[in-house]
Amino acid sequence: MPEGDVLRRTADRFELAIGGRVLVRSDLRWPTAATVDLVGRTVLETRSYGKHLLTRFDDGRTLHTHLRMEGYWRIARTGSPESAARSPQVRAVLATAEWTTVGYHLGMLDVVRTRDEHSLIGHLGPDLLGETVDLDDALRRWTARGSTPVAEVLLDQTVVAGIGTIFAAESLFAERLWPWTPADHVADPAQLLGVARRQLQRSVAEGRPPGHVHGRLRQPCHRCGTRIAVGQARKPPMERPIFYCPRCQQEPTGL
Q1: Does the pTM of the predicted model rise above 0.70?
Q2: I need a labelling partner for 210 at 20 to 30 A (CA). Which of 97, 172, 188, 204 fits?
Q3: Between 3.20.190.10, 1.10.530.10, 3.80.10.10, 3.10.50.30, what CATH number should domain 4-121 receive?
Q4: 111 has which bridge partners?
Q5: Sign of CA dihedral 11, 17, 20, 21
Q6: Does the domain spanning 135-244 belong to CATH 2.60.40.420?
Q7: Do 190 and 175 meet the contact criterion of CB atoms below 8 Å apart?
Q8: What is the pLDDT along the chain (255 residues), one digit of tens a residue?
């Protein structure tokens, strides 16, 4: 599932493959961008912000993409079978003489002036994988969510950007927090956000480690042996599964 760690690794791979190079092919299979031609443009850089990818060009434009639930990018040698990008699931192709990036099942795609990127990501909270994180801003946004369940606050990209269901569940397990604890009852939200940030950073550096709770329904907890359970964060149709240990992450008394 694409979370901030996946987008950061994708951005890093883009940098290695096409950063600083001139595009020889541009194919954006998206209704609002189908006529955009980026051939001849130099890729200045690719950066991630939360779950968003921003590829910037030397003419002052940015290609913005979002993977949503099922999207992903592949990088192939230009001229290889995969670089032909014949699949109907392909939504974007950017190619240099050496490497071709192919975006499948993309959930969002926009081409905007680089100076206007804020129109797409300006509403987001601080990026937990940014070089620095404005913790004061994040905590102000957290406080504004009041008694919203903590799992839902972690998933809210307008509070902090980059956490999905995996790192929401794993950070809550690390802090022994019941996922439906009201956010204003969490004793140290800064500590929780710090744990999530370190987990994301580790995943970028080393790859995702096996989870303690996510995806482990009915398997024994690594701490206490209790079978892992799953509940729901958010209401339909935006609900998300949250895995947790019923013993290590008990509901607080007095709520």
Answers
A1: yes
A2: 188
A3: 3.20.190.10
A4: 63
A5: negative
A6: no
A7: no
A8: 689 999 999 999 999 999 999 999 999 999 999 999 999 999 999 999 999 999 999 999 999 999 998 999 999 999 999 999 999 999 999 999 999 999 999 999 999 999 999 999 999 999 999 999 999 999 999 999 999 999 999 999 999 999 999 999 999 999 999 999 999 999 999 999 999 999 999 999 999 989 999 999 999 999 999 999 999 998 888 889 999 999 999 998 877
